[in-house]
What we know:
Layout: E1 3-12, E2 16-26, E3 29-34, H1 41-48, E4 56-61, E5 64-65, H2 69-77, E6 79-82, H3 94-104, H4 110-123, H5 139-151, E7 157-161, H6 169-180, E8 187-191, H7 195-201, E9 204-209, E10 212-218, H8 219-224, E11 230-235, E12 245-252, E13 255-261, E14 270-271, H9 276-290
Amino acid sequence: MEISLQGxxxxxxxxxxxxxxxxxxxxxxxxxxxxxNGAGKTTLMRILTGTVQATSGRVVVGGHxxxxxxxxxxxxxxxxxxxxxxxxxxxxxxxxFLDYIALLKGIDSKSARRAQISELLERVALTEAAGRRxxxxxxxxxxxxxxxxxxxxxxxLIIVDEPTAGLDPEERxxxxxxxxxxxxxxxxxLSTHILxxxxxxxxxxxxxxxxxxxxxxxxxxVVAAAHGYTYTVTTxxxxxxGDHAVVNAQATPGGTVYRVVTEVPPAGAVPVEPTLEDxxxxxxxxxxxxxxxx
Length: 294
C-alpha cells in the first residue's frame, strides 16, 4: 500500500509544531521510523491512523485522502495498529479477545472469524495458550497477541509502535522474526528506539528530527552516513573534550574506550567502521545543525 505525505504540518496549542512541512513517499514493505523523543513520530502515526488531523498538507494512503471523512473511514478499514500500550480485557481468553476485535473490525461471519483467529494464533505461537485468560499472559505473549489483533482482516497498512520495549532477549528475538514476515504487499511502519529491531527487520528507514525528515532510504544508507566520522578514543580519564557525540564507552584494562561521531576527531582518535547506531547519531547531529539547534 502506497503512502504519500506532501507538506504535512501539525501544530498544537501554543504554536508547537510537531510536524513541519513533511514530504515522504512510501511504496510498501517494512519501514523503520526513527527519531528522538519529540521528533514527531507519534503525531505522524496518529495522523496515519486517522485519530488526529493535520493542520495543513496532504496525506494519501492507498489512494484515500485522509483530509476527508470518507478517506479516513476507508483507511481505518484496512489498518492494523499495535500501539505501545494496548488495553486488553484481562478476563477474556486470547481467543475471546480476538473474536471481539474481529467483530469490531466488521468480520461478521462466525466461521470466517474462527478461521482467521486460529490461523493467527498459530502464526504468533499462542495456539496452546489460546484458552488462557489474557490477564495471566507475560509481556511478550501480550505483544504477540497484539500483533495478532492487528493482522485481523488482512490489513494493507500496519503500524507498530515500540513493539519490543521491555521484552527479554529471547522474546525480543521471537518478535523480530514475527515482524520480519509481515511485509510483502503490505506497508508496515515500525516505530522504535531500538536500532537493532530496525537492523533485523527493516530494509528501509525514515528518520525524523523536530518534525522534519532528515533521511529516507536504505538501512545501509544510515550506516554510510557515519563513514569517515566514526572514531574510538582511549583514555584513562573522562571522555575527550570537543564537538562530538559519544556513542558508547567500554571499560578495558588499558582505559576507557570511547566511540565518538565527529567531523573533527580529537587527539589520539582511531578511525573505525561505523554501525547503524553511529549512522543514526550522525544524522541526528546533521539534522539539528541544519535546524540551528545546539
